Amino acid sequence: MRRDLLRTLVLAALMAAVPGVAHAQATGSKVPRIGLDAGDPLSKSAPPATPFGRSPSTSKDSVLDFHGYILAPMNFAVLKREDPEPGQSSTALHSPPLIPQDQTRFEYTGVIPLPWIQLNFTYGNSTVSGTAIITSRSATDAAGIFDATKQPGIASAFVAVNLSQAIHTPFEVKVGVFTGRYGAMGEYDAGRYGTPLIARTNTVGVTTTAGVDLGKKFQLALEHGIGSSLNRPAPFLVPEGSNDFADSGAEGTPSADAPMGVGTTFVNHLHGVLGYDDVAQLGLHYFTAWTQDDLSTPGDIQDGKIGVLGADLRFTLGRGGHLYAGVAHTDLSHAAVVSGVIEVLNARGGPGLIREYLGPESHGNGGITVYGAQYDVSVARLLYGDFFKGVSPDVRLSLFGVGAGVKSDDPDHDGVNKLKVGAEVSYSALSWFGVSARFDHAAAKSDDSATAFNIFSPRLHFHTDWLSRDELALQYSYFNSGSDVIVRTGYPPSDDPGATPDQHVFSLSGSFWW
Predict the structure, then answer these.
(1) What pLDDT, on a 0 to 100 scale, did the predictor assign at position 43?
(2) What are the b/e assignments for 406-419, b being 16+ CB within 10 Å?
(3) What number of helices (H) and strands (E) belong to the chain?
């Protein structure tokens, strides 16, 4: 009853604002931020990049805009080998390390850098443009095996039509394949955990964004999107790396009654963000993802549905720093057949949420409430205000945390609460050198210390200038893991209770953003 009332209030508030868009007057004010742009990398915090060439948004003629992001880390663990045989070293090395940092799990912190290569190509003008985004989580030259799941190639391709100049108010339509990420905890990115707090959509479809100046320093941004999965697994498809381990059964096993797992899934989403003077923002977010595919739900198998309601606050306080806080509730009904067009905390669709939160006996029924916050502040800016330009020594502090409460039809998962919190302090000592230290605590069950682990990570930073977008970093991370902390091994990765988590992990990484 409470969720139905909340859903009604959110929809009413958003739809009541829609008529104002049609009557908006010309405005030059900044449109409040709704989520991450399709081309923005999830990490790391930095001001928006300077484009290569001329930005299409400022040109009447068609021009090329090119951005990219490279993060290439070497991660390895050093450990003592138990009972070495003759000819075996007493020291063992693991690369990648055996640590509880699978990206789809709640306990993922993002403290250990993972490979990410992204190339954004946009060609067009201020009215219409086309964008193609190439991404990869691996690089072939260093790969021990070719993993197709980590090299997706063209991740997004869409056409954007910007009618802002023609109708004298911000208005843009995107059509094609792209992702939407809502609940970005960082000022410029998804936050320290590299995960949108509320939800993520992965669809082919259309998204319309509009903005209006309400006067007295208030601005409103509205966004609506609808899309679907581009394709779906064929019946009785054998899950393997080449098809991203596609789900092959509604309850995990193909049968005559359930010839395939996830079906064609659609997602409808609506967002409204009210901003005040580029200082404060209040956002409301609504998602419904559903499947009514007769091939995935034959016989008496019910259609699946995932709904998300979320709200967030953002304060950009200048010398006072940046504060984000958000909460979202995900409601699942027979969700085993809902595909990855929607993600919550990196868990893809119904199968991912069942595996990571609801449990196999839930049959896709339950709910997840997620809440989180992040606060970042520069000590130099706090002391000197606008006199600090970022070209002198500085200390930056960050506090962050996310929690999740689970309600499930599976008694082994019902009532489980998860929690992760962390803090980071960094000191930019010289134009080319800085140091930082980060602490993370994560628990699969917040009331069970055996499922928890702590990570302490000192780091050295090397770069070419104060405001450069390049960095070479050397990091050491010490993992202190409880007795019931599980790591994943194999291909595809699966829980391995017999594997002992590594303690001493080293990372040498280079990153560049242009």
Answers:
(1) 63
(2) bbbebeebeebebb
(3) 4, 23
Label residues 92-124 b or e (16+ Cβ within 10 Å = b): eeeebbbbbbbebbbbbbbbbbbbbbbbbbbeb
pLDDT computed for residue 148 by the predictor: 79
Q: What pLDDT was estimated at residue 263?
A: 84
Residues 6+ apart with CB under 8 A from 82: none
CB distance 431 to 468 below 8 Å: no
Secondary structure percentages of the chain, helix, strand, coil, to 5: 15, 45, 40
pLDDT at position 281 is: 96
Q: Are the C-beta atoms of residues 207 and 266 closer than 8 Å to each other?
A: no
Query: What is the rounded CA–CA span in Å between residue 114 and residue 507?
Result: 10
Q: pLDDT under 50 in the chain at which residues?
A: 1-29, 45-53, 250-259
Question: Which of 198, 195, 201 lies closest to 43, judged by CA?
Answer: 195
Half-sphere exposure (CA, 13 Å, Cβ side) for 100? 27
Grouping H, G, I as helix, E, B as strand and the rest as coil, residue 67 is strand
Rounded to whole angstroms, the Cα distance separating 358 from 438 reads 31
The confidence score (pLDDT) of residue 9 equals 37
Return the ∠ at Cα 167 (arms to 39 and 267), rounded to 5°.
45
